[in-house]
Amino acid sequence: MAISAQKEGNSASDKPVQDRLLDAAEQLFSEHGFEGTSVRDIAAVAGCNIAAVNYYFGGKDKLYTEVWRRHLLQMRDARLQAIEQVMFESGGKPSLEDLLRSFANAFVGSFRDESRSRRFMNLMAREMIDQRVSVNLFVDEVVKPTMGAVRGALLRACPGLEESRIPLLIVFLVGQLMHVVHIKAMFDQTEMAEMPAFDLNEAVDDVVKFSAAGIRAYAEGETE
Predict the structure, then answer these.
(1) Phi-psi region of 131 (alpha: psi -120 to 50; beta: other; left: phi over 0)
(2) What is the pTM of this model?
(3) Which of 1, 44, 113, 170 has its CA 20 to 30 Å from the CA of residue 187?
(4) DSSP string of 53-120?
(5) In sequence order, which residues have a C-beta less than 8 Å from that of residue 137 and are 6 or more positions away?
(6) CA 91 vs CA 28, 33, 192: distances in Å
């Protein structure tokens, strides 16, 4: 945004106005949806003047997009940092398991804050029903940079892997992790005593083992 962060003079909060608006909008959009949330509601929760939404974001639509952008950039940066770290620590030659575990932990790490995770899950569910964010935002900000980093790292960790297979393998890995996150959220919200305990760390370990075995099978031609 072109406008620099400023403080609202009559607010008790130390957060910049933009952050307060984003926090309030995220909460309300996740609870009531885009149509069910007014600019007045957002401003009231943020402790700002109604005009601040237009001043800082140019309207409710753009504020909604920025709520998503904030989540997406945090997720992207965590995943890229995890890949960079495991590559550095391994001297550029990580084991397949170490690489996948590092990526998987960064992926699920975004969902370990239960209250924020619940809001984001609600946002995702609402967005799937009533799409308002351009697919290009997700592709350009998250998919392309993450795919590029994972592709390069996978070729180092598993040299025999055919490069054309990698995008689909990444999709499979992400699909497993996303499902694990959804299942954990479901288990956490149920009060049924017969439901088993769900250990996220154990689930991630199993996803890593399963994915590593599958990737090696592709690399060794065992799927032919």
Answers:
(1) beta
(2) 0.81
(3) 170
(4) HHHHHSSHHHHHHHHHHHHHHHHHHHHHHHHHHHHHHTTT---HHHHHHHHHHHHHHTT-SHHHHHHH
(5) 65, 68, 69, 72
(6) 45, 46, 48
d(CA 31, CA 210): 36
Tokens matching residue 73: 């950039």
Amino acid, res. 136: N
Quote the pLDDT of residue 192: 58
HSE-CB at 126 with a 13 A cutoff on CA atoms is 22
Query: For the chain, how many helices (H) and strands (E)?
Result: 10, 0
Gyration radius (Cα) of the chain, Å: 20
Neighbours of 59 (CB within 10 A): 10
C-alpha to C-alpha distance for 141 and 43, rounded to whole angstroms: 28
Closest to 187 in 3D by CA, of 177, 201, 198:
198
What's the rounded Cα separation, in Å, for the pair 97 and 158? 10
Return left, alpha or beta for 93; rule: phi > 0 is left, psi -120 to 50 is alpha, else beta.
Answer: beta
DSSP, res 140 = I
